[in-house]
């Protein structure tokens, strides 16, 4: 599933926008090993970088979101000090810039980084400083913003939402909930979403990945999500007649009519069982139906992937053209939680000129 793909330079150099990428799902294997050794964490399944990378990919290939999520125990374990968070965030920004990403929203759950004694604020400040460092080290070819995630099985969402508002002018663009979806509907966190709406703050919700339409419906109609993390199961509300004509149910129509962005993550979906192959992944049909589709990595370490790899596989296995990649990239930039003028500047000044060169 996580096959290695020789990336073509013409894909690597395209300007890219990434809205759905987990900080704790994108560490370099060698960094995990170095931090584990330095801090005395002896729980890693391997201390050889290539083998450890393979272990993450193979273990995440589980066919279930719950088992996929178990692999994060090891990455989160080495992200418990300010130095480690700073390093991981800086390397993240540099790796994304090297992949051609010009704007990224990278998410993580501050509540998962407290076992070394940091406060929530210290976690956010260490990650922010790391992103700034990584941007600079990349020659300012990338802009990175953080999304703060609350874990849906836990009870910290209001506290995390307050943290988003506190840091909204300082590197934090929005809020998210993640974790096991079945049994943990987004309405459990309604207080947090209502608070954010009163504060005019932005949020996305992981919905329609491991659970279907009710989760998407709650996320949009009860909670007010601006974007959907994955949302791939919106396909359950789209039917194809014998003569090939498609018809959209009320919810699918609403999502398309309102231009609600879908943060789609093809490789991740193959691993958790939400989709069967790149060739048949719903992202292509949803693109053809003109939903506001975006292309994302989710967890680069667990999927052995990158934006270039996701894009190249869509080209090679699902018939995407460069024009379609450009369309999805502009969709993503329009959907970012960045002020309008900054979005426009990146579209007109970076993305369109970048594509014009291809
Ligand atoms: O695809 C996902 N669905 C739900 N939760 C996820 C996914 N990828 C990562 N997470 C969880 C595990 C991480 O520890 C947490 C914060 O990044 O978010
Ligand atoms: Zn995710």
TrEMBL record:
Any one GO molecular function term: 2'-deoxyadenosine deaminase activity
Positions binding Zn(2+) in this chain are 20, 22, 206, 298
Q: Which reactions fall under this protein's catalytic activity?
A: adenosine + H2O + H(+) = inosine + NH4(+); 2'-deoxyadenosine + H2O + H(+) = 2'-deoxyinosine + NH4(+)
> How many cofactor units bind, and how?
Binds 1 zinc ion per subunit.
State the top-level EC class. Answer: hydrolase
Name the Gene3D superfamilies on file.
Metal-dependent hydrolases
Does the keyword section mention ATP-binding?
no
* Keywords assigned: Hydrolase, Metal-binding, Nucleotide metabolism, Zinc
Adenosine deaminase domain span = 15-352
Q: Look up the EC number in the record and give it.
A: 3.5.4.4
GO CC: one term? cytosol
Marked site (Important for catalytic activity) residue numbers: 230
Residue sites binding substrate per the record: 22, 24, 179
One of the protein's GO biological processes: purine ribonucleoside monophosphate biosynthetic process
InterPro entries under this entry? Answer: A_deaminase (IPR028893), A_deaminase_dom (IPR001365), Ado/ade_deaminase (IPR006330), Metal_Hydrolase (IPR032466)
Q: Which domain of life is it from?
A: Bacteria
Named cofactor requirement(s): Zn(2+)
Q: Does the keyword Amino-acid biosynthesis apply?
A: no
- Active-site residues, Swiss-Prot/TrEMBL: 209 (proton donor)
Entry similarity comment: Belongs to the metallo-dependent hydrolases superfamily. Adenosine and AMP deaminases family. Adenosine deaminase subfamily.
Chain's role = Catalyzes the hydrolytic deamination of adenosine and 2-deoxyadenosine.
PANTHER family hit by this protein: ADENOSINE DEAMINASE
Instruction: Report what the protein is called.
Output: Adenosine deaminase
Give the organism the record lists: Rudaeicoccus suwonensis
């Amino acid at each position: 599933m996580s096959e290695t793909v020789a990336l073509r330079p013409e894909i690597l150099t395209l300007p890219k926008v990434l809205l759905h990428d987990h900080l704790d799902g994108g560490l370099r294997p060698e960094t995990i090993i170095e931090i584990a050794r330095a801090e005395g964490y002896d729980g890693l399944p391997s201390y050889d970088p290539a083998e450890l990378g393979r272990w993450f990919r193979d273990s995440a290939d589980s066919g279930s979101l719950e088992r996929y999520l178990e692999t994060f125990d090891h990455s989160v374990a080495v992200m418990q000090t300010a130095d480690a968070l700073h390093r991981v965030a800086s390397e993240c920004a540099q790796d994304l810039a090297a992949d051609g990403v010009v704007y990224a929203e990278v998410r993580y759950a501050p509540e998962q980084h407290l076992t070394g004694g940091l406060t929530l604020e210290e976690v956010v400040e260490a990650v922010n400083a790391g992103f700034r460092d990584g941007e600079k080290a990349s020659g300012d070819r990338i802009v990175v913003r953080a999304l703060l995630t609350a874990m849906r099985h836990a009870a910290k969402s209001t506290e995390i939402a307050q943290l988003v508002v506190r840091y909204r002018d300082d590197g934090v663009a929005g809020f998210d909930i993640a974790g096991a979806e079945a049994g943990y509907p987004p309405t459990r966190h309604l207080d947090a979403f209502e608070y954010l709406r009163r504060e005019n703050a932005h949020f996305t919700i992981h919905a329609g990945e491991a659970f279907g339409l009710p989760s998407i419906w709650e996320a949009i109609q009860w909670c007010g999500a601006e974007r959907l993390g994955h949302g791939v199961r919106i396909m359950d509300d789209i039917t194809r007649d014998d003569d090939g004509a498609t018809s959209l149910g009320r919810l699918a129509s609403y999502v398309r009519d309102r231009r609600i962005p879908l943060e789609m993550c093809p490789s991740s979906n193959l691993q958790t069982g939400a989709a069967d192959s790149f060739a048949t992944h719903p992202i292509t049909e949803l693109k053809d139906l003109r939903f506001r589709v975006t292309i994302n990595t989710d967890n680069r370490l667990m999927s052995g992937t990158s934006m270039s790899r996701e894009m190249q596989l869509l080209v090679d296995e699902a018939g995407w053209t460069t024009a379609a990649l450009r369309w999805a990239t502009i969709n993503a930039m329009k959907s970012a939680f960045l002020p309008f003028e900054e979005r426009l500047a990146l579209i007109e000044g970076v993305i369109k000129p970048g594509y014009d060169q291809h």
